[in-house]
């Protein structure tokens, strides 16, 4: 059974909330990921805007059809009562085999039930050589002993 983490956040609950979000996104399951958001959640992701779970599922389906072998690490940056800021990086390749590391920041706002009601993401992509990849765990959840962003100096 999954415990729902609700605001107000403290450092431990904020860190746990970030890891749960990372785990969800690393599943690359749009339906599963969408359940962490309110029915009317509002997103800005790069230049795309999504409102509600249906649009979130559609967005993530398109995303992971393009961003192949996606692996993500998120790290807590700051938090307050019902908001969390994270920084993150993920690695992926396109259908031509070109690898990228995408860096970004997100601002999250939660409702009283612990569902994300607002998500604002800023992302930049960096082309990398396959040999420069740092996220090499098997697809899915990042292993607990895999270093995070700060330890990787990213």
Taken in chain order, the helices and strands follow as: HHEEHEEEE
| Order of strands, widest sheet | 2-1-6-5-4-3
Termini, distance in Å? 33 Å
Low-confidence stretches: none
Report on this model:
This protein is α+β, with helices and mostly antiparallel strands. The chain has one domain (11-132): Nuclear Transport Factor 2, Chain: A (Roll). Helix content is 24%, strand content 40%. The chain is built from three helices and six strands, in the order ααββαββββ. Strands 2-1-6-5-4-3 form a six-stranded mixed β-sheet. It is globular. The N and C termini lie far apart (33 Å).
Summarize the entry for a quick read.
This protein has 154 residues and is an alpha+beta fold.
Keywords summarizing the entry:
154 residues, alpha+beta, Nuclear Transport Factor 2, Chain: A, 6-stranded mixed beta sheet, 3 helices, globular
Could you give the topology of this structure?
Elements: H1 11-27, H2 30-34, E1 37-45, E2 48-51, H3 52-66, E3 68-79, E4 83-93, E5 99-110, E6 116-128
Parallel strand pairs: 1-6
Antiparallel strand pairs: 1-2, 3-4, 4-5, 5-6
């Amino acid at each position: 059974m999954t415990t729902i983490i609700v605001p107000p956040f403290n450092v431990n609950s904020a860190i746990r909330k970030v890891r749960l979000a990372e785990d969800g996104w690393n599943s690359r399951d749009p339906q599963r990921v969408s359940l962490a958001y309110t029915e009317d959640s509002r997103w800005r992701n790069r230049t795309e805007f999504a409102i509600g779970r249906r649009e979130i599922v559609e967005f993530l389906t398109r995303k992971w059809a393009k961003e192949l072998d996606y692996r993500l690490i998120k790290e807590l940056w700051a938090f307050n009562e019902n908001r969390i800021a994270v920084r993150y990086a993920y690695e992926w390749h396109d259908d031509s085999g070109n690898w990228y590391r995408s860096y970004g920041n997100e601002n999250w706002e939660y409702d009283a039930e612990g569902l994300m009601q607002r998500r604002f993401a800023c992302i930049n992509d960096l082309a990398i050589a396959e040999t420069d990849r740092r996220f090499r765990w098997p697809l899915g959840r990042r292993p607990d002993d895999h270093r995070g962003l700060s330890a990787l100096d990213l």
